[in-house]
Structures
1.
Amino acid sequence: MVKTPLLPGATLGVMGGGQLGRMFVHAAQQAGYFTAVLDPDADSPAGRVSHHHVHADYLDSDGLARLSRLADAITTEFENVPARALASLAGDVPVAPGAEAVSIAQDRIREKAHFVRCGVACAPYAVIETAEQLAAVDENLLPGILKTASLGYDGKGQQGVATRGELGAAWAAAGQVPCVLEKRLDLDFECSVIVARGQDGSAVHYRPQRNLHRGGILAVTEAHEEAVPAEQAARAVEAALAIAHGIHYVGVLCVEFFVLKDGSLVVNEMAPRPHNSGHYTIDACDLSQFDLQVRTLAGLPLVTPRQHSPAVMLNLLGELWLTQGAKPVEPDWPSVLALPGTQLHLYGKLDARAGRKMGHLNITSPTVAELRQTAQKAAALLGLPSPFAA
Ligand code: ADP
Ligand code: MG
């Protein structure tokens, strides 16, 4: 990473053109930077708003060379950007987070080993890379969830398994690729912590937020002082910082946790980038997670972000556009936006598909009671289930 700060006027590059890249581009441009996005899709959400858009595959050497010529520093928004693409860029230009940190986060086996090394408990698990390891799996891990070691997201690459027979069938269905079998835990709730760590090793973080998933996809994030009890919040922050420091991470890192029915906290996974559960920071904090991503990449000072309002984020998935058959219909935004404290964020995706993240609605209020009322109303207007029930 850069030793002296990159000042506005420089060009910040990002690998990946999805919504996270788009919000990074918005934050970078607001601060006076030029931006360059590499993404194979000509209509990518970030590519459409960036000063430069390199249409190329993540491993295309010409494309990577073009990006490194355009950009003074490069970050990533897409967890599955091949780590070797980042490693090759790093030969020409500062890259953060680095290829090593990203490759650990891309591989559940290495990721869990890192958590264990940092002294942070994760769900009991077994690595399954061979038929011998499959046969030797401890019965106590069942019922469990078989997760492919790489390339999973939004619950993809995961299969619930109750018996040894199901486990064998699930591993076969996964193509016998490296997997982890995780014990299915009795969750009270989920939360995450977003950390930003600079090149100098200093780190700042947001208060942990509470996350509700439906069908393996984040549905709701709640962020305020009552969302996560103080004791678990303190433990989650401590664990997230240990995980970030343990890999000398530079950039924005999100660490996801499970809180179990007995009150204990276990780490689930980490994402080497801003995270869907941090989108509320755009409207509820003085610095958003994307502002912090810009600062870590440019080597600008990190200061602790201050949340000025309790917030709820509702994820807006493609289903919301598909209520009247196959032809997409725009949801009734005017009714939703008539509620005080609502802010609509849409990612400019051209076609709505079930499960596709199209945007999110941020809701802020002066009080938690008011916030919850408004969130309930917004969800009802959108035809979503109550944001506070699983
Ligand atoms: P992804 O990469 O798709 O986000 P996760 O491992 O975070 O994968 O799993 C997605 C969701 O599935 C989690 O947020 C949680 O709701 C549920 N889940 C995953 N692992 C477990 C587990 N071991 N026990 C109970 N629920 C789990
Ligand atoms: Mg997850």
2.
Amino acid sequence: MGKKTNIQLMVDGRRIDGRLPEQLREIEMKIGEIENADGSARVRFGNTEALVAVYGPRSLFPKFLQESDMAILRVVYSMAPFSVDERKNPAPDRRSIEISKVTKDALSGAVFLEEFPRTVIDVYEYIIQADGSTRVTAINAASLALASAGIPMKDLVAACSVGKIGDVLIVDLCGKEDNYSESDMAVAMMPSKGLITLLQMDGRLTKEEVLQLLKKAEENCKKIYEMQKKALLEKFKVVGED
Ligand code: CDP
């Protein structure tokens, strides 16, 4: 289904926030700000910001929920009431339930769940500012939070959004672009394994455009992946090491 396109999103090759089509927003990654959590991370893409806390692995009760040969990953995505212009009701709605499910699926394959039978790993994703692409921002933060909790991982998961304004392909959609562009795609990857773990699309694209956007998503996920590794190295650098 097409999206509403009644506002001008591109003027003289620049987007509404002044960016070029393939320019990411300013990205910030902070690790370990929530002392009480086993792992945590805060990731900001422009005015979209996700704070994620990880607890576990810890025993799972009631026992009938346990898996005898692996841990269960439980992911809750929610938007703070103050994260958007109009107050967001904090109760889970259909959208947040769906995003919780797809982000869980995007992350599960990266975690060695089989090392922690009968336990649960809780991932709480909280959007504190929303300006487009919140699910991918939350996935980037969740991946860092899991790694910072010391949970063994096969790879980090890096994610970004891509889309189309008119016939121009763009990366990292802000809120207005998310809502009014012709099309947007959310992509998450395990870059060193070349695996896609999330792929969602809204709007209309030709098959060629889908393939071109996937390529752009992969290039940008790799850039984000490098930033994630740098953030982890800075946080966990051994004292005395250069
Ligand atoms: O955020 P994401 O792109 O993953 O998901 P979306 O459902 O496509 O939402 C697009 C954008 O709409 C969000 O990033 C917010 O900026 C905005 N939004 C909002 O203002 N109020 C909501 N209740 C939900 C989304």
